Predict the structure.
Amino acid sequence: MKQVIVITGLAEGMGKQTALILARKGHAVAGFDRDARGIDVLKKDLDRIGTEHLLQSLDIQDRSGVAEFSNSVLDRFGRADTVLSNVGTGFFGPFEEIDLEKARTCFEINVFGAAAIFQAFIPSMRVRRNGKLIAMSSLVGQIPFPFESIYTATKFALEGLMESIRYEVAPFGIKTALIEPAQVSTGFAAKIHHLPPENSPYRERVRRFIQRDEELIRNAPTPAKAAERIVKVVLSRTPKFRNPVDFTGSLFLTANRILPKRIRDAILLNHMRIQVKK
């Protein structure tokens, strides 16, 4: 049966690939992204596929715009079967040196952005007693990474939000799930990676971290491959709450549950090659 899938942040990367796979399967796609050019390209792609769609250029921080968008989706399709909150932004740097005012924007987009789109669609799902809320989290939603303290904090917050929401909405037939990729081969990290100033005490370890992260990203699943896993969660009638995307993510999340913290820390520092050199 055709479903109506809402996706935020779908102009590129995993969001776009997920939308394309869903469209090819015959599902209707609605969504937005602040990348107007990317939205125009995706509209043409969906037109060629021949699926129903409702796309627009919109910033997740525009709260009234998000509310108007949800009304447009419900007016057009009558329902939203699944909402996938995929919009997100990164934040990188030694915590001591970061700009906390800029860090607010990361929380605004990653946490409150997801909250806004879910809040906009929960009422209609509750009335229908059916629907799914899926949030794009990350490996760092459970495993904190150095030099990604703010980004990690937003994903921890997002996972806590979803943990709490699911108790509230489950009685109304609304299911919740998290997607937790490790690395995906996109330009997401490259946009935020930067070395601290030469006089920074963190510079050398950050250099090694970036080098290792970029190496891992080159060998990570492509957005199209990750989207295949995401689509399975989106279309599942009873999705698992936690859903890693690749083997590396599954391995790390399993180790995080069963190994002592001292061993987990040693594995992480060795994996990212940022041990303190003596």
